[in-house]
Design brief:
This protein is of the alpha/beta class and about 170 residues long. The protein has six helices and five strands, in the order ββααααβαβαβ.
Length: about 170
């Protein structure tokens, strides 16, 4: 049950109950609500991924990225210009691995040369994710890290790679 309680300027409360009350409230105050949203919640992403198009068009997965995937990558990239982190959530099969790796590739110019990307994967998907991540960009170094020695060797190798190489270590979550 929807209940809205309005507080008037004089301090009086006006209770409203039911779905119709919510619909009527939104209908009656739509201009003010939209103005408030526009003023206080400006979108970060404007549906223009042209800045990232060169990278997005080079991703070698199937026939390339779908337009929706390109927008998700660009939106995540845009959000990371102002935030420390984001959540990328989606159903199995929508391409979260490729999306995340492409976002990491887009961030390379802002990363220090000694920075790497670590991915935690379900054990049965580490090989698949390695193949998918390697298709994001031609300047990519991807390794599965199973133990401390693998991790040390990966870190040592990353020190000698060219700048702007996407360096990804994949760790099985178990």
């Amino acid at each position: 049950v929807v209940t809205i309680t309005l507080l008037t300027a004089s301090g009086e409360t006006i209770p409203m109950t039911g779905d119709a009350a919510l619909v009527n409230f939104i209908s009656e105050h739509k201009p003010a609500l939209l103005d408030y949203l526009e003023t206080h919640f400006a979108p970060l992403y404007d549906f223009d991924y042209s800045e990232l198009a060169p990278l997005l068009n080079r991703v070698r997965i199937g026939n390339g990225l779908f337009p929706t995937q390109k927008h998700v990558i660009a939106a995540a990239y845009t959000a990371l210009q102002q935030r420390k982190g984001i959540y990328l959530v989606g159903e199995m099969g929508v391409g979260k691995t490729v999306l995340g790796a492409t976002v990491a590739a887009a961030m390379l110019a802002q990363m220090r040369s000694d920075q790497i990307t670590l991915v935690m994967a379900p054990p049965h998907l580490v090989e698949k994710w390695k193949r998918e991540i390697a298709k994001v960009t031609s300047s990519c170094y991807v390794q599965i890290l199973e133990n401390v020695d693998d991790t040390r060797a990966f870190m040592d190798k990353c020190q000698n790679l060219l700048p702007h190489t996407l360096k990804v270590g994949i760790i099985a979550r178990e």
